[in-house]
Specification:
This protein is an alpha/beta fold. It has helices spanning 40-48, 81-86, 97-103, 119-133, 149-161, 173-176, and strands at residues 2-11, 14-24, 29-33, 55-59, 66-69, 137-141, 166-169, 181-186, 191-192. The strands form 2 sheets. It has a 6-stranded mixed sheet, with helices on both faces. Strand 8 (181-186) and strand 9 (191-192) form a beta hairpin.
């Protein structure tokens, strides 16, 4: 179980988290659903150890063993798709590049640079890079932005097959209905509906 207890976080005079508490499963795929700006990204960032709250704690998450997918693709324009994957793999796993390109349905795009990929392809590459990095937990911020529903469904099943817990944020109904748990949120400050 991932236990979030009494998180408080303010940016200036804006309170995003105000004594926020939540228990999340540590298996399967869990979706955080809510309007843009309600605090989902902030919550994911706190869970990953990327943002420090002013109060509260997260138990059951080891940031050093967590892979995080940002809302932005954060692809390096001078690196090919294959190199983006290679960059996160330890030397003994470098032979997995084609597997991870296939995971994201990017076969044949290994030599492509980000500028030549569509928005959905770039998003899938960023997701594959995150999944290849691996760890004990995947935190994914809007992983299927720009990805069609059919492909997103296939990607969700591949994520499930990795056998690690996944917590993602999404607005897409087709994604939410395929998740094991959906937590509906509102805010700010963030609250469970």
């Amino acid at each position: 179980m991932i236990r979030i207890r009494d998180l408080t976080l303010r940016y200036g005079d804006k309170t995003v988290l105000d004594g926020f508490s939540l228990d999340l499963p540590d298996s399967g795929i869990t979706a955080l659903s809510g309007l843009s700006g309600c605090g989902k990204t902030t919550l994911l960032r706190v869970m990953a150890g990327l943002t420090r709250p002013q109060g509260g704690e997260v138990r059951g998450v080891e940031p050093s063993k967590t892979a995080f997918l940002f809302q932005e693709d954060r692809l390096l324009p001078w690196r090919t798709a294959a190199r983006h994957i290679t960059d996160v793999l330890p030397k003994e796993r470098r032979g997995e590049v084609s597997h991870w390109l296939a995971f994201a349905e990017l076969e044949g795009e290994g030599d492509a640079c980000p500028a030549s990929l569509s928005g959905g392809m770039a998003r899938r590459l960023a997701l594959a890079r995150c999944a290849a990095l691996g760890g004990d937990l995947l935190l994914l911020d809007e992983p299927f932005a720009g990805v069609d529903e059919t492909r997103a469904a296939r990607l969700l099943e591949r994520l499930r097959a990795l056998g690690v817990p996944v917590i993602l944020s999404s607005h897409q109904a087709a994604v939410l209905e395929r998740c094991d748990t959906v937590v509906r949120l509102d805010g700010p400050p963030l609250r469970v509906l």
